[in-house]
Specification:
By secondary structure, the chain is an all-alpha fold. Helices cover 93% and strands 0% of the residues. It has 1 helix and no strands. The chain is rod-shaped, with a radius of gyration of 13 Å.
């Protein structure tokens, strides 16, 4: 089902964005 695939993509992109955001915060704070 396409809905399941789209949900998985959103979860992967969301987790990736969170990791990038955390890395950005560490860079700015450092």
């Amino acid at each position: 089902m396409p809905r399941d695939e789209s949900i998985k993509k959103v979860l992967i992109l969301g987790s990736g964005a969170i990791k990038i955001g955390e890395a950005g915060e560490f860079d700015y704070s450092g």
